[in-house]
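Backbone-to-sequence.
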């Protein structure tokens, strides 16, 4: 078998998928739309934006691709998988109805209520006065979420009720987050530690990848503004075997049974963000694609053929028992442009180590980069992800930080405490 594969997206997650797919003996040819500066070194890039579903569908059909893998959620929520499957092309990623779990937090909240999936108490609102009444009278502190897609930035965690009311007003009446904030979800603020659970789902069958933990705050000690993710590691010991068993029984089983009951043939990644509370694991959110940067630490731990696994799932076949996961650790350190997550400069030249100087079990993942002739330039806030794998987390982090210190561009910065909770637990 020689598969022709198209990966959709342009970030670090997509570069990790490219690297994983390239290892497969089943791969014939690989393209990425639109890709980035680093992806262009690994495969052919096509200048089609991930949200240009019409052009993506036409290109996939005209190119007779065997498999399309969607990295981001936006093309899935716009029906890319529906269109391609209708034309006989296998897609790793759910149809539009499955993508609603991420595209609408209101849908997701209602779905969890319908199928008794443990999550925070909460309600959806499109009327500000009703939202304000709920916030003022709720017997708990609240979190305010834009219902629609907001590139991971649609959640506000207020410090008091007045701030919560202001956040609701800003979204519903002030246009904060645009159309994504025209409907909001007001929910209970949960206490506990978060973890990310990535499932590779084929109907009611699934593979659970190692639990990971992301670091959202820009500053060390988990301080400062929220970001798309400053680093991650896996496996995360906070998700103990007992917790994972409860996740399977109390969250995964009713979720997958609920999808099937509602006629949703789910094929792709289901990202379950959990809060480990005193009463057990609860869902913070569902996403319908791999996390970024979690994908970058999970792909290296997947010993089985990633392309075969995604191709099988896309065609409705999954032999979950045959999937092998490494017993080691993986960690990523994200190097950012000065000013991120606020405004930042683009177009600075990046100096990278030669391939021969990159140690075994280490990867340089490009996120916000672009190729300019033979040079690689900065083109985003999160510029590079440096990944290390080792038998211990300390060893994986050492490899990642050694690589992070070896890349240079003006204003580059990164957190030096990735994995601090895990290391403190072990200590």
């Amino acid at each position: 078998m020689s598969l022709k594969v198209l990966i959709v997206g342009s970030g670090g997650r997509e570069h990790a998928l490219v690297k994983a797919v390239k290892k497969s003996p089943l791969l014939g040819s690989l393209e990425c739309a639109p890709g980035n500066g680093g992806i262009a070194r690994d495969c052919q890039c096509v200048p089609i934006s991930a949200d240009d579903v019409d052009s993506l569908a036409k290109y996939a059909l005209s190119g007779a691709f065997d498999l399309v893998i969607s990295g981001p959620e936006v093309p899935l929520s716009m029906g890319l998988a529906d269109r391609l499957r209708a034309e006989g092309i296998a897609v790793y990623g759910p149809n539009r109805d499955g993508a609603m779990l991420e595209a609408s937090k209101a849908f997701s909240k209602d779905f969890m209520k319908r199928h008794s999936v443990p999550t925070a108490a909460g309600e959806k609102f499109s009327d500000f006065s009703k939202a304000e009444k709920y916030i003022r009278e709720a017997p708990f502190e609240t979190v305010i979420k834009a219902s629609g897609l907001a590139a991971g930035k649609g959640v506000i965690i207020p410090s008091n009720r007045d701030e919560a009311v202001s956040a609701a007003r800003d979204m519903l009446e002030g246009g904060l987050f645009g159309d994504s904030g025209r409907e909001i979800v007001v929910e209970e603020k949960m206490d506990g530690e978060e973890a990310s659970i990535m499932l590779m789902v084929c109907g009611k069958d699934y593979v659970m990848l190692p639990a990971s933990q992301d670091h959202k705050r820009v500053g060390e000690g988990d301080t400062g503004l929220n970001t798309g993710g400053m680093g991650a590691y896996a496996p995360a010991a906070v998700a103990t075997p007992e917790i994972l068993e409860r996740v399977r029984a109390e969250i995964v089983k009713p979720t997958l049974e609920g999808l099937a009951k509602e006629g949703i043939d789910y094929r792709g990644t289901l990202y379950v963000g959990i809060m480990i509370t005193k009463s057990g694991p609860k869902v913070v959110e569902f996403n319908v694609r791999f996390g970024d940067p979690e994908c970058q630490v999970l792909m290296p731990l997947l010993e089985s053929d990633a392309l075969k696994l995604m191709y099988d799932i896309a065609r409705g076949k999954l032999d979950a028992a045959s999937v092998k996961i490494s017993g080691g650790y993986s960690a990523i350190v994200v190097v950012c442009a000065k000013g991120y997550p606020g405004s930042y400069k683009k177009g600075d030249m990046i100096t990278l180590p030669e391939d021969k100087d990159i140690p075994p079990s280490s990867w340089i993942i490009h996120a916000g980069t672009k190729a300019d002739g033979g040079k690689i330039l900065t083109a985003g806030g999160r510029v590079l992800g440096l990944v290390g794998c080792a038998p211990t987390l300390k060893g994986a982090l050492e490899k990642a930080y050694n690589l992070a210190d070896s890349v240079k561009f003006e204003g580059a910065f990164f957190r030096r405490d990735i994995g601090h909770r895990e290391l403190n637990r072990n200590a």
